[in-house]
């Protein structure tokens, strides 16, 4: 009987340390937003411009949290670091296309706090701005596919 309780306790710790589906969803939407920006730049065909390379180089770190394993601490740290760096890049790199990554930066920061097991009210409160940013991403993708 003691062995069963120990197994249940170890499993509970492992499940609590996993990335919640809400966090992973925000990170995936941020990655999709970055890929929408890349698709728009590639569709314009301006390969030699510095803005094109700025957009392509900025997309790579945004994809990183989506490919992390199941460790919540590493995921949260990556989302916070990349989200904060992207906010700085959105302001400083406006002329190189950095401003297009502001929704992705905000989604990554929301992904870091959207764990209802740790913060039940805060995680679900993060869904409102997350849903609005997701709507922005979907509208941008639709605009690019129709108008460009």
Describe the protein's architecture and organization.
This protein has 148 residues and is mainly α. The chain has one domain (19-147). 76% of the residues lie in helices and 0% in strands. Helix 2 packs antiparallel against helix 3 (50-63), helix 4 (72-92) runs antiparallel to helix 5 (102-113) and helix 5 packs antiparallel against helix 7 (127-147). The model has no long low-confidence stretch (mean pLDDT 80).
Compute the gyration radius: what is it? 18 Å
Number of strands: 0
Figure out the total of helices: 7
Q: Would you list the SSEs in sequence order as H and E?
A: HHHHHHH
How much of the residues is beta strand, in percent?
under 5%
Number of domains: 1
The poorly predicted ranges are none
Shape: globular
Primary descriptors:
globular; mainly alpha; 76% helix; 148 residues
Summarize the model shown:
The protein has 148 residues and is mainly α.
What topology emerges from the helices and strands here?
Elements: H1 2-16, H2 21-44, H3 50-63, H4 72-92, H5 102-113, H6 120-125, H7 127-147
Helix pairs in contact: 2-3, 2-5, 2-7, 4-5, 5-7
